[in-house]
Structure formats: structure tokens, C-alpha cells
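Async update (no meeting this week)

Hi team, since we skipped the sync, here's where things stand on the single-chain job. The sequence we agreed to prioritize is pasted below, unchanged from the tracker. I ran it this morning and attached the output directly underneath so nobody has to dig for it. Comments welcome in thread, and please keep replies under the output.
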Amino acid sequence: MGRASRTKGVEGEAEVRRIFQTAGWDVRGLEGLGDWLCMIGGEQTLHLEVKRQERLQLPSWLRQAAAEAPQGVLPVVAFRQNRGEWYAALRLADLAELAS
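Output:
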């Protein structure tokens, strides 16, 4: 990964962190992994895998997030392409659980 890609990734992580913090989530970085844990009111915890890439690889990213999420923590992929909006991807069953 080149310097420009690393810079873009770090900037993307900061953007996603601000979005969750503005919404009232407590966001904590996982040392050395580049991933984040987001917690709200002690009720729900998300493991965020942040991707800012032009070429979308959602199935691969979702598998990565699921493999790296601690037990009992919902894996979520936050992603966007250049000049695009941020989106989140997660298993439908996990979305249903969040919405209930």
C-alpha cells in the first residue's frame, strides 16, 4: 500500500469516527489494527472496518470484519468511493437486531 493509499485510509477512518461521535457513540481505536469499536449507552457495540476505495470488495470486507470482530460485537463495514457518500454494510440479521 502506497503512502497516498495509507493517507486516504487514515482520513477515511477519521471521517467515520467523527460521524459516529457526532451521533453520540463512544469510539475507541483498536491499537495496531486500524479498526474501531463503537459503543452507545452500554447497549450495543460495533466493530467498524473502514474502507475508502474506488474498487468495492464488499464480500471480502464483510468476511474480514466478521473474522476480526470480538465475540458478541456486530461487525460493520463503513465504506465510500472518492467523492461519494459513506455507507455501512452488515448482515441483514444484525441490522434487524439493531433495529429492534
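Quick observations from my side:
Strands lie at 26-29, 36-40, 44-52, 74-80, 87-89.
The first helix runs from residue 3 to 22.
Reply here if anything looks off.
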